[in-house]
Design brief:
The protein is of the alpha+beta class. The protein has two domains: 275 residues, Beta Polymerase, domain 2 (2-Layer Sandwich); 59 residues. Helix content is 53%, strand content 18%. It is built from nine helices and nine strands. Strands 4-3-5-9-8-7-6 form a seven-stranded mixed sheet, with helices on both faces. Strand 7 and strand 8 form a beta hairpin. Helix 5 packs parallel to helix 8. The longest helix is centred in the last third of the chain and has 66 residues. The radius of gyration is 32 Å and the shape is rod-shaped.
Amino acid sequence: MPRLFRRRSKAIGLPPGTPVYVGEQRPRKTVINIIDYNEDSFQEKEIGDVAECSDFTDRPTVTWIKVEGFNNLEMLKKLCEKYALHPLVVEDILNTTQRPKIEDFGEYVFILLKMLNFSDEKGLMVEQISIILSQNYVISFEEGHGETFTPILERIQVGKGIIQKMKSDYLAFSLLDVVVKNYFKVIEKVENRIEFLEDNLVENPTTETLQGIQTLKEQVTLLRKWISPLREVTSRLERGRISLINQPILVYFHDVYENVIQIAEAVDTFRDKIPVMLDIFFSSISYHLNEVIKILTIIATIFIPLSILTSIFGLTIYLPPLISIPIIIALIILMMLYFRRKKWL
């Protein structure tokens, strides 16, 4: 049974208690759609029985079995048994806490990914996606609501691009490419959050700023956890050692690999920034505290001689207010001018 994890966060700009979600939080029924196509035809059908898959996967066309939701475990297991998936692969598909990986079983290739999304309301959201690549079919298992691969489905429906002319390996590339390109959107949003926090570090360092940095640290740690293993996944795909991937398609997987490297480097940069931001925060707090102490010290320094002067006047000499007040004011002005000349004010 898939497990769900939930972490609490108090990021700047987020309501207190906003969670960082790991895993899909909205239960839904399991839906299996069959998308069967080639250069001249297209057919889409939602099936209620796993046996119906045989009507499509035995054809010379490319068949995409699109599985959404993990609620009906019995149906999922029947599907996995029909295509003779290894028990460990089935376990990895259903256990949504797995790290990205790739395994080549000869007759099929198993690819496990994490689809990442980021919103100001929910923080970082992680959804597991598994892909089975075979000679003439691809099976995708989506943990969540099934909108991840909508752009690819629309391209197939309208015949846009070259996807209908290509084989199953190009379809697997397209699915992987959508997931990786979505990482750039997440990276951009995290970068905007970092810039927002950096602007507040010097001008207005508060408890909320510190909480925002801590939440950001958690999010960057999660990003690194899911993205770092993806280097090895895409590296194996673009090396040309998997027999199910044709040589002309390797250049597409190489492009995905370069995108993953770029994303991983951005995450490493974010991770390096966190300690610097914490140092700036505490330095800024110390600076503002020193400013307050300096002002209090100046006020105390001004009033010490005035207290001595008024004590002397009160004990030995009586001066009328018209004389004593101007003397006190003049003394204050002289001290302020001296402090300003010393650049203490």
